[in-house]
Structures are given as structure tokens and as C-alpha cells.
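Troubleshooting log. The previous run stalled partway through. Resubmitting the same two chains, unchanged.
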Amino acid sequence: MVRAGMSKLNNMKNIAIVGASGAVGREMMLCLEQRGFPLGRLRLLASARSKGREFDFRGEKIVVEELTEDSFSGVDIALFSAGGGISREFAPHAVRAGALVIDNSSAFRGDPDVPLVVPEINADALQDLARGIIANPNCTTIVTLMALAPLHRAFGLRSLVAASYQAVSGSGARGIAELKDQTKATVTGEDLRTDLYPVPIVSNVIPLIGPVEDNGYTQEEMKMEREGSKILGLPGLRASVTCVRVPVYRSHSVAVSASFEREPDVETARKVLADAPGVALKDDPANAIFPTPLDTTNGDDCLVGRLRRDHVLDNGLAFWVVGDQVRKGAALNAVQIAEHLLK
Amino acid sequence: MVRAGMSKLNNMKNIAIVGASGAVGREMMLCLEQRGFPLGRLRLLASARSKGREFDFRGEKIVVEELTEDSFSGVDIALFSAGGGISREFAPHAVRAGALVIDNSSAFRGDPDVPLVVPEINADALQDLARGIIANPNCTTIVTLMALAPLHRAFGLRSLVAASYQAVSGSGARGIAELKDQTKATVTGEDLRTDLYPVPIVSNVIPLIGPVEDNGYTQEEMKMEREGSKILGLPGLRASVTCVRVPVYRSHSVAVSASFEREPDVETARKVLADAPGVALKDDPANAIFPTPLDTTNGDDCLVGRLRRDHVLDNGLAFWVVGDQVRKGAALNAVQIAEHLLK
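Second attempt completed without errors. Output:
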């Protein structure tokens, strides 16, 4: 079912970014600019606190407007990245005004009428825009699936065990500031101050991201199973995930062990990944070639390395995947969805 | 078979530390002092480069002597922590001089005539000292097994999938210096210099520790399977491990998913771990209670948290374990072995 709004999109390309002053909002601007998005007017929307801030975009200044119910008149695509509460409150206003919403929060990801899309994996889900909302998946899930989806097509994914190494930018600007301040304190000898995280993140790792569910997993950890199932169309997917914050500024890494229906051989898997759009192999550990967070920072591709047979899982492969979670894990993926809507 | 030397130990307690000026060697001194080890003479042995250095021990200065073939006269127990080459060359001299060797390198771990011991797990292996050498296991393996061994006794371990978060002190003093220097450079704006690691470790994680084997796993990763099998007496143990260096000074963390013969329930597992010697539970994630590397630094216990059913493995449990790898992962474990030899 194609919504009425879709046809308009062929001619009109006015974009609004909700949450424009946040880390992901600003990265969305950068992606629109760098990729030459066919853009009419760009409106930057944020809370009253950010109203009046100016951002450079294609050589001109754009002033941030306060987000209200009436902000979406004339907007074709609204990119939301201001938290679930804002999305739940304002996305319906955007849709009512005729915009398509691409939402980076978790507000609508579980809604069966809202497609959850990684364009390289399931762009076909964009055919059904009944609610006028498309959800952008969780960042760690996107990075992991960028490698898992092509392997799934080749061998049939059954389940995965994963441990993440997540950057502080996943907590937004406050996460970056906290690591920066604590790092400085370790050098100057000042006292460490913890504000955002319950314990220091500098010289430490924190094995808890977000609220805990009754089953002992965090919501962040459960997203791999729930969002992965929906994106891959695999209702029975099982995932055992441990999400860990590490003192890295940007780019999430994931150590993955995956079990498949059919026996995977490593050479075929390597070819499958080398040919997958948005993925690049960096896999020659004997010559110290492997991906690290610094390699993907500000880059579009997710990098895969350490590919090998898994010693435990049936028909298993183990690998390491890294991606810039502000970019492919959030802003770039949303802009790629917008590009697909124009096709 | 009990070696002749053993009986001597009841009366004589002269100790030598080989590699005394290294991080583990110095921690061994600290453990001997803190635990009131019944010690006669302590000899500190190291390379010619460290000869003449002085260390405080129980209020007196001990001068480092150069390690030679003749260094072990009158020594009852020699604690080696100076790398595999030194152990292979000098441990036989120590044994010939009548000493029992406790070796922290990997030189003898695979030798079927050399017990590989974590005292809380398999102290009974110390009955057989035919070669006069006891091997101290790999640090990540010790930390992981401290939690896995009691669970194995309760439910019967079959296999594990693990991802590690290993501190730079695992690379010795040079690892600590590299992270310190790079951290300072990020604050002062100087250029980052990489010396020990192939890429920066500050604001980064490195998914490769040590040489790579033909199967794509590193030696460090394979130690979990090989040493774990020997320590637990489980020849068929399978382990799929990804070892990753993180910008943490001290204490290794491991995210573990383990599969058991019998169905484990989480409450029983929690009781088993709470009662296990050398293990402490820190497991109430809903109230932000979980173990981090900073919690175990300079501590004896390995801390376990995030205990939950594993969603993928048969009869599976997932958990997070952290331990000071200089201490329980190396020096403390060696001194505990020495204490057992005195019994």
C-alpha cells in the first residue's frame, strides 16, 4: 500500500530535522550535504532551548526553529532524532501535515504497521507506508546486521551470540563530554566526576546500557533479537547479547558468533561480505589488519574482520564488525531511507 | 607421585622471583607480603639490565641479582614471570637445584607432566609434581574459570562463547606506558605515538591479542579451550573466544555464554557463585550494580554480574566476570599455589 504523500515526493523535497542540535541531527545535515541530497528547503527544529542557534549548511546559515505542532507545513520528509517522547508526540503532527517521518527513536520500531529499514537489507519494506512513518533501527543492531544480512542470504541465519563495545557518542553529546572531562582529570590529577554514567567510563568498561528487563537482559540487548527478526523477516531469530560501553568516542564494535542453517565456509563468507554494499572487509589478522573504531569514524562502510569458523555453534561463523554508529548506525541510514523514498 | 623436594618444603621456605622487576614480579612480592607468606629468604632475580635495583619488602631493601644458572641454590620455590624463553632456559636449573618452579609463562602449560593449577579449582593436581614444575594459567582463562568452574560442578560445562575486554597491563609495563602516553597526547593535542600496539589503544579497542593460528583464532583465544580443558579435566571442552584489548589499565572483563549438560536455573547459579571461594557476586543491574574493571583493581576476588539465562545456547547461562589479571590472573594465583605446596 503506497501512501498519497509518496507521489508528492517525486517533486518536492523539503526536509525537516527534529533534534537538529543533537549529535545525530547535525550528522544528518552533514549526510544531506555530502551526498548531494536533492533538497528544497531544510528546516531545523529543536526544543526552545536551542531556538535561534545557527548552523552552516551548503554555505548558508540556517536558524533553528522551536518545534511545535505546526512546524511541518510544506515538509515532505521529517527526520526525527530527539528521543522517543518527542517522536510519539510530534510524528503524528508531521504525518497529518503530509510529511513522511523517518524516526531514529525506538518509539515505533515494534509497530507492525511501521517498516523498520536498513536500505541495503530490506528497502522493499518501504513499499508499505500505511502510517507514514519509517523507523530507523538501533545503532548496534544496524552495525551487526550489515554483516549478518549478507551471510543470512548465503547460509540462513538461525541465532547469534554477541558482545558489543559501544562508544560514548551512543549516549549523545553528554557521553562524549563525560569521557573527555574524565580523561582530562586522569592527566591533570583532578578528581573524576561522574554525571551521566553511574561509574567512571575512563579507564573502565560498563556492562550495562539502558534499562533492564525481567529476563535479565537490557532493552538495548533485546533490540538485536526483536529488531533483527523484523528487519530480516526471521520471526524465530534468537540472540544472546551483552552490551558494554567502552571508553571510545565514536563507532561501535561487535564480536559476533552466528549459527546458520547451512554449513558456511569461510572463503565463501569472505566473498559474500566483500560483495555486500556498505560493507568492507579488513581481515588479515596475521598481518595486523583488522577493523577498529578509529578506522570507521566518520566513514560510511561497516568494516568486518576476524572472520573464522565458530568453535561452538552449529554451522557457525565468528567475526568482528565495526561501524560509525552516529553515521551508519543513525544519521546516514535515515538519509539513505529518505533517498530510497525519492526513487 | 610426590617429588622428594616436597618434604623439604615443610621446613624451608626460601623463595626466588624470576622477573622481579616486571609488573607481575612486583605484584608477587606484594602478595607474599600482604598474605604473610611463611618466608625465609626472598631472592629477586632478573636480567642484567635490572641488576642492582632495590625493592622494599617487609621494611627491608632487597637488591635484584642477575639471573644465572647458579641462582637457585637453597631456593625452595621459584616463581617465574619473565616470559616463556627464560622459563624454558632456567626452570630446569631451578629444578636441578632442588626448587619447585611455579611458572607464569605459557612454556609448560601444555606439558602433560606439568599440572596447570587454579588452587580454588584443581589444587588436587598438585599431588603430581614429577617434573618439579607447576604452570600458572593464562590470565583471561583464570578469570573466566573462576566463575565457570563452580557452575561446571553444578551443571556440567559443555562449551562457551566468550568475548574479552583486556587491560593494557596484560602487555606489561609497556602497555601501561603506551596508554598513559597516548591519553596525555589526546589532552595536550600532541601527536599520538604507537610503539607497542599496531594502532592507537586510547579511544579505541583492538580485536587482536598475540599471534594468529591457522584456524583464524589467536593463541590467546585458544588458551581458553586448551587450558580450560586441562584445568577442568574436560577433554572435549569447546570454546569460541574473541580477545580484545581495551583502554583500561588493569583488570580483564569477559562476557561469557556457557552451555551445560543440565538445565541451570539462575537462582541456583547465583547461590553456587556466591558460595564459591575467590568469587563475589555483584549482580543487581536494575539498581546499577554490576562489576567493572575499576572494582577489582588490586582486589583478590573475581566479581560476577549480569547473570541470566542464555537465549541461544542449550542449557545456557550468560554472565559477566571481571578480575585483576595482574593479581588473580597471575601473581596471586602463583602465590596461592606456593601456599598449597606448604600444606
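Takeaways: Chain B touches chain A through 60 residues (CB under 8 Å). DSSP finds ten helices and 14 strands in chain B.
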